Amino acid sequence: MLKASQDVPIYFVIDAIDECPHTTGIPSLRDQVLALVKKLVALKLANLRLCVTSRPEDDIRTTLGPLASTSNTISLHDESGQKRDIVDFVTSVVLSDANMQRWREEEKQLVIETLSDKSNGM
Amino acid sequence: MRSVRDLLAALSLAVQAKMFTGNQLRHDLAKWLSPPDPFVNLNIANDTRHRDTTKWFTQSSVFKSWGESNSLLWIHGKRTCSNPLLAVSFYNRTLCPQPVVGKRFLGTSSIKLFLFRKLMLSTIDQLCDHPGFKWHLEIWFGIHGVLFLRFQGHRQARCARTVVFSHCPAQQQIQRFP
Fold it and tell me: In this structure, what DSSP letter does residue B123 have?
């Protein structure tokens, strides 16, 4: 099917590959998914846009590291946009939650700053 | 409940006898495929997504250049990847004006949707709807009962592909023939 549609782009996003079980089976389910990613990259289909998100666990890093160029590898942990998203979200919750309306302004600010700082990109 | 074999028989007879075509055939095929609803998880994820989240990414040069090449994009982070926000962003941010074949979003909250068979059912179902594809249906009775779908692109005959989908539980697999 991928080859059948060579004149249109196909976006294939695999989210959270680290949640795929790695403990049972030889090869494990995760090994099989990683092998599929490797195979898709090797096909070099001009219309295929492949993206994988995951934790940087050893087996995943070993497989995906050589397949993705440095410019096409994003570390969310170091990403300022990701940190900004967290601050925006925490701020929005603290300012809109009915129970937190009773808090003093400096308490709200303390919660926002502490949660944002300690979130560590999560 | 009718068995797969009964449905195949009914469809086969209908096609052979040319009793109905177009919408009726499409309706019966959709009923037989019974694809999972791909929008349940998408809507849940969209509802939980804070406004403008991940905008930094979908508006970045990395995202733009990835959309113009066939290279692999790898995004890694501590626990951020356990939520589907980035995947939703990908989905919402349509890189081509009109999805030619279709879009499918399968969230992590429903592990059953990850079954390859269901994904294929869903994709086949959507392919049938696309006006860019004219399709005709042939049904062939093997030992296990097989649905034989042939898709042919309007513009390029070389795009013709045949997909054979076995509904035998022991052989739930897709085979493609050139």
Answer: H
Local structure of residue A99 (DSSP, 8 states):
G
Q: Put residue A74 in one of left, alpha, beta given phi > 0 → left and psi -120 to 50 → alpha.
A: beta
Residues 95-114 of chain A whose Cβ lies under 8 A from any Cβ of chain B: none
Element (H, E) at A75: strand A73-75
Number of structural domains chain A divides into: 2
In terms of domains, do A12 and A53 share one?
yes
A36 and A49 belong to one structural domain: yes
Residue B108: list chain A partners with CB under 8 A. 15-16, 19
Q: Same domain for A21 and A66?
A: yes
Domain co-membership, A66 together with A9: yes
Are A6 and B62 a contacting pair at CB < 8 A? no
Per CB-CB distance under 8 Å, the chain A contacts of B81 are: 15-16, 18, 53-55, 76
Region A109-115: mean pLDDT is 91
The answer to whether the Cβ–Cβ distance between A19 and B77 falls below 8 Å is no
Chain position carrying tokens 């969310």 = A76
Which token pair is B112?
Answer: 């059953």
- Does residue A114 share a domain with residue A87? yes
For chain A positions 4-63, those within 8 Å of chain B (CB to CB) are 4-11, 13, 15-16, 18-19, 37, 41, 44-56, 60-61
pLDDT, tens digit, 9 for 90 and up, residues A43-98: 888 888 888 888 888 999 999 999 988 888 888 877 888 888 888 989 998 999 99
What does the pLDDT look like over B129-172, one tens digit per residue? 655 444 434 333 333 333 444 444 333 333 333 344 433 333 33
A28-58 per-position pLDDT tens digit: 888 988 999 999 999 888 888 888 888 888 9
Domain that residue A94 falls in: 78-118
